Amino acid sequence: MALFLSTYVNKVDKKGRVSVPSRFRSVLVDKGFETVVLFPTINGDAIDACGMDVMENLLEKIGGFDPLSEDRESYADVLMSDAIELAVDGDGRIMIPLDMLIDADIKAGGQCAFVGRGDSFQIWNPDAFAARKKLAQERTRSRRAAGAGSNGGSDDE
Amino acid sequence: MALFLSTYVNKVDKKGRVSVPSRFRSVLVDKGFETVVLFPTINGDAIDACGMDVMENLLEKIGGFDPLSEDRESYADVLMSDAIELAVDGDGRIMIPLDMLIDADIKAGGQCAFVGRGDSFQIWNPDAFAARKKLAQERTRSRRAAGAGSNGGSDDE
DNA sequence: TGGATTATCATGGGATTTTACGGAAGTCAA
DNA sequence: TTGACTTCCGTAAAATCCCATGATAATCCA
Asked: Residue A66 sits in which domain range?
């Protein structure tokens, strides 16, 4: 199975076009897609990206359409309404809508980081991602130091 | 079953290419892989290498993509964003990304050690690995002298 | 057995292809 | 036409493929 792995930093040109990393494109093609679905991350820091399959799974998970129920997981609705499906053009690029770029603090003419997450990926302002990653690493380390202990004593892995 | 055993030291050429030891290549083929997945060891000293199965298991364990949860197990995210799947080329070589080489203190044009660990292997700066090995041996010796005895000897994992 | 022949392997150096990315020309609707 | 978007083409750098070489290990055969 193909997974979205690793991190690639690409340039957003002044028209707002970005090359989707070729590895990520291959994964999409492997899954049988020629489009990507984008939507804001739940806390708005970045942009979530995936194939249409993930959207379908999500819809299934939240129960699909039920005209009798008034409240479905409300964020899921917002998510669907914010999501957009983008075609990857002949040169492997997509055009991320301006408001999404602004929300994720990515400037046209600047750079953005494509971050693999396995079955999906995210698009970040590179600096913001670096900061977040550092945080996550520290959290992991302190958690390990705190009590994980487990084996003979070496903290190597 | 085939295991990654022994240690091989190969040269990293100036383009960043390294021959994967032929024994290790055979093991990979035996397991049904034509690619290797690399990611930094948890403490950043070296590079971990395994087959794609490990990544897939990890993804399954963390439950896959859920846009509704603010952050899933953060170490898993860091791992996916740092990991990379590399194809072994026709000559049995891989191209390790530059930043990984730097983090592991391996210079292009220098050497690196492929260290078997059974169902996975690691890639080290040869000197760093030698030092670490010596340390582990001393630790084991003093522990045996102290009386513990117990398992195979190394407390590595 | 021992010496010659033949694989296999690690490694170097081109040559070719791919990729990211800029710009120009074409398309379409208002 | 104007502005927004799309398709097309050119380029430089990087990744990948292809073949040559030397070294070592395996094989063969008188």
From this structure: 7-147
